[in-house]
Amino acid sequence: MPPRLSRKALSSSTSSPLAQALIPRCQCLRSSPSRSFSSTPHNETRQRRRMFRWLNGPGSVFRSPLPGSTNYLNAYNAQGRLIRLDDLGKTKTKDADEELEDTSEGDEAKDTTANIASGDPIPRETADDLMPFPLNRQFRSQAVLSEELKDEIYKRVTQQGKSVRLVSAELGVEMRRVGAVVRLKSVEKEWVDKGTPLAAPYARAILAMLPQTAFSSSTTPIPHESINDLPVHRDTLRQVFHPVSESRHFTRVDAGKVFHHTLLPADERIPHPELVELAKANADGVNRQERIIRARERMRIEDAEREEKERSRMEREERETTRVMGARWEFRFRDVDVEGAGREERGRGIGARYGVPHQDRKRGQIKIPTRVE
Known about the structure:
mainly alpha; two-stranded parallel ribbon
């Protein structure tokens, strides 16, 4: 067993300068108890504080959407107040760039909620309020038909027996949309009769997020969209160089015949040509009652002509069709004319060529007219 050294001998031996020089020394570095291995910048905490401050302050108004209005970010200012209410002077205006404390921001958000809940009418959304994405300022949410307006369209067409064109002119909804509403409402009522469950809560939630065109029972309804846009005809998609003399009176009828001999002018190809006649009568000073009588008579004549044309077409098809009843199927045979496509093979008969390009953009073709008609 090795001998033990006493404390006095050890202390006296280590206290000499030579012993102090021979003892090895090491410098130990204390590691930090909270070492961070994350690469996230140090301003994360500040951003989180700002986020929760906004959620508890101005952002608290977005937890429940406004009744009868959209709930987009661009409709509110930095303090959580409706901008269109500030413009009318219903709320106090403050500088948006001023830094506010959490308590003041929460009070301002509550002030907006109190103004809305007090029963004051909310102004209609402007174009700046209908931007759901603040960074995409070119996108605007388009209005959709409300449920009351859809029900009114369906009632006027199915129950009152009005034509699609008349309902379109009365309510300011395009004819194709009127037809789509009638078909979808028919399917919806059929599902209700069969007991098929509907996604009504989902539909109400989606409608609450979008601007709507409400039904107005007044004589001047709220127009939903433009109903008299001129459709683009396929015969007008090519370039035509048609020279005319300076003394000739070149009208829209002549312009339509240049593209095709059966192409009607723009005044007759629009969806509602009766509105043009109505505007002309109004400019001539005809009273309102007389204009209504003329419009109804004109629409009655047009509907009668359309029904007669459809009846003649069906009779002609029935006359040209030979029916042979089989055991399970009915075979229909029709005589066709191979010359129906025409000399240029652009008609609708048998042998018609699809996708025949025009020669107006082909290199080497003479596009400049060489004579005047």
